[in-house]
Amino acid sequence: MEMYTEYLDADTIVTRVLSAQSGNFQELIADTINANDSYIIHLSSTNASIDAAYVTSLVAGRLSVAQLAAGDLTLSNSMRIVSQNGMLEMDGQHLIISIEDENENVIDGIQLGYGDSDLPFLKFCAPDSNGN
After folding, report:
1. Would you tell me how many other CB atoms lie within 10 Å of the CB of residue 124?
2. How confident is the model over 57-104, as pLDDT tens digits?
3. Is 91 in contact with 102 (CB distance < 8 Å)?
4. How many angstroms from the chain centroid is the CA of residue 101?
5. How far apart are CA 95 and CA 48, in angstroms?
6. Which of 100, 118, 117 is nearest to 109 (CA)?
7. pLDDT category of residue 131 using cuts at 50, 70 and 90
8. How far, CA to CA in Å, does 71 sit from each of 1, 68, 74, 81?
9. Phi-psi group of 67: left, alpha or beta (phi > 0 → left; psi -120 to 50 → alpha; rest → beta)
10. Can you spell out the DSSP letters for the chain?
C-alpha cells in the first residue's frame, strides 16, 4: 500500500522502514543508530546545551569552564594550569608562584615540586637589592 501526502499529522506511526531527506526530532529514543559515513551527532556551542552528562572520555581543542566541581584532576607533565595574571603556574611536576622584583620583572618566588632525582624540593627566591 502506498500513500502520498504533503502533510501528515498523527500521534503514532508504526513502520518498518522510514526514508526521508531530512528529519527534525524534538526527542529521539533509539536502540541502535546507524549513520554509515555520516556524523552521528555533531555538537557545537551554537547548537547544544548539556545540563547534566556523564562523560567517560573527552577530546577537546579548547575547553572553557565557568565553574568546575571535580573530585580529582590529574595533571600530566604536558599539561599546565596558569592563573589569569600568569603569577601562578602548575604542571605535573611543579607549582610556581611568581613575584615581581624592584624593576617589575617577573621571577619565580616560590617553587615546590620534584627535581631531577625525583626528590621533592621547596625553593624560595627573594631577590636582593641588585635583583639577584
Report:
1. 9
2. 777 787 777 777 777 777 777 888 899 888 999 988 889 999 887 788
3. no
4. 35
5. 36
6. 100
7. low
8. 59, 10, 10, 17
9. beta
10. -----S----S----S----S----SS---S----TTS-S----TTT---SS---S----S----S----S--PPPTT-EEE-TTSSEEEESSEEEEEEE-TT--EEEEEEEEE-TTS-EEEEE----TT--
Q: Which amino acid is at 96?
A: I
AA letter at 67: Q
Q: In this structure, which amino acid lies at residue 60?
A: A
pTM over 0.90: no
- 35: phi then psi, degrees, rounded to nearest 5: -115, 10
